[in-house]
Amino acid sequence: MLISHQNGIAFLTSVFATKWVIVPLLVIGCEGGPRGILVVQVSGGNEAREGIPRERFRDGYAVRYRHVVLELEGFFLASRDGERARIEVEPVVVELVPQPAQAFRIEGVPARRWDLVGFSSRPVPPNARLAQGVDQSIVERMRREGWSLYLEGTLIGRTPPRGEPGEIEFEFGIPVAVDYTECSSGDGTLGIVVVANTITQGEITWHLTHTWFDSFVENASLRGEAYAAAWPGRGPLLAEHLRTQLLSRLRGVDGGPLLDEEGNPIQYLPGMTGARTLREFLFSHRYAHWNGLDGECKSEIRILAP
Question: What pLDDT is attached to residue 255?
Answer without folding.
Answer: 96
